[in-house]
Amino acid sequence: MNNDHLPDHDELVPTFDALREAVERGEVTTVMIAVPDMAGRLKGKRLDVRVFLDRLASGVEMCAYILATDTGMNPVDGFDLTGWHKGYGDLRVRPDLHTIRHLPHEPGTVLVHADPVRDGAFVDVAPRQILRAQLARLQALGVEVKAGLESEFLLYEGDPTRAFLNSYQGLRSLSPRNLDYALDHPPALTDFLRHLEDVLRDAGLPAESVKTEGAPGQVEIAFPYGQAMTACDSYTVYQHAARALAARRGLMPTWMAAPETGVGSGLHIHVSLWDDERNLFDPGIDLKRPDFLGQTVAGLVTGLPHTMPLCAPYPNSYKRFTPHSFAPTRFTWGTDNRTAAIRITGHGEGRHLEVRVPGADANPYLALAAVCAAIHHGLTTRPDLPDGCEGDAYEDVDAQPLPRDLLDAVVAFDGSDFAEQAFGGSVVRHYARAAYHEIDHHLGHVTDVERLRGFDRV
After folding, report:
1. So where are the chain's domains?
2. Residues 104-151: pLDDT tens digits?
3. Is 155 within 8 Å of 192 (Cβ atoms)?
4. pTM higher than 0.90, yes or no?
5. What distance lies between CA 245 and its chain's CA centroid?
């Protein structure tokens, strides 16, 4: 991850005036208005572009349940925002015109991110608003967050609908073996990656690097360093495009944190703090300032334990955290140490932190919001910085372990003064409720592993 070039937001998306001109030329006919849901997926409507333009002032309405479901879009009771007790009314969604983006794989179509609003205010439990609030807290301290996201996912062969009906049994990876850092890929994988790279570039969000990873069919895509909200918005478009392009080629991507036993995929967050054009982590600056890097690392190590449902939101998420898997098992830090949860990396003006805790299944807005909340904690309370790890961080028995499962994580989150102060009670209740629902769902189902270990043995 290189942060030598920090792209300005205007470099990435067309302007609103350019959209109007494209409409007049007949080049744009459809607008996808998209709200990131609790899982980080884009949900919304396709509108005729002229209808979209006519409704800019009044906004578009969507059922509030888009922020109150499980991953299967099933309504879940117990949310303050909406539910059967409130009749599942509508929210008005306000398009963010700075996010207009062409979709090259959808001719004549642009996508625009939107924010749910109620009574003239942003809905506080919406993922974009949660991140926006954390960025504002740091801006009040005089610092700006720059971020770059590094995504891992697995590719399988097959039709998504047929695989769903077959309960995702018997899946075959697109590549048969470990192809980490390989440049000789199977033709189907090469063609998919080339197509995805071209679409992302034409959509204004070029990948910085693309490589195959250690698990069969595993791919890692790193995106350029830049504005935090833009990084997350771009990430959701990338996932949307990857799913669409894969389906057209008879392929299926998954961003599960642990799609198979012994296989893990992460969402690594690269982050640094800036004051105007200066990287506050740059060891070469002499501003007689506090130790921003040390305070940030201390905040992450002590604050992230209170936010784990935002970084690892499902029971499956915790099956990624295994020793010597390159996923952390303890809240540790180190310099250029991939066994640690927080890795100091980069050189000179490019020095930054790589937060290796979030899984591939994390909502990028929520995971980055958790990182920002922990950084704020470090800058304002200045907790003690534990010793860094110079060797195998899996052997650092003095460091706090990551939660064993989602139940441990949500208990720490739901009862945390840190989380309450950072996010507010309504946000904590909302995402704690979602976590408890996931736990209840899994507890209510018998798995094939249980049958295998117990059918004729107990």
Report:
1. 9-121, 134-406
2. 999 999 999 999 999 989 999 999 999 999 999 999 999 999 999 999
3. yes
4. yes
5. 20
* Amino acid at site 280: L
90: tokens are 């509508």
Topology (CATH) of 9-121 = Ubiquitin-like (UB roll) (3.10.20)
Its CATH architecture, for the domain 134-406, is: 2-Layer Sandwich (3.30)
Contacting residues for 122 by C-beta, under 8 A, at least 6 apart: 115, 116, 129, 132
The values of phi and psi at residue 288, to 5°, are 50, 45
Task: Work out the burial of residue 398: count CB atoms within 10 Å of its CB; fewer than 13 is exposed, 13-18 middle, 19 or more buried.
Answer: exposed
277 token code pair: 């054009």
C-beta pairs of 219-222 under 8 Å, 24+ apart in sequence: 219/152, 219/153, 219/154, 219/155, 219/193, 220/150, 220/151, 220/152, 221/150, 221/151, 222/1, 222/148, 222/149, 222/150, 222/151
Q: Are 304 and 357 in contact (CB under 8 A)?
A: yes
Closest by CA position to 360, among listed 273, 266, 294, 254: 266
Neighbour count for residue 310 (Cβ, 10 Å): 29
How many CB atoms are located within 10 Å of the residue 362 CB? 26
Q: How far apart are CA 126 and CA 402, in angstroms?
A: 26
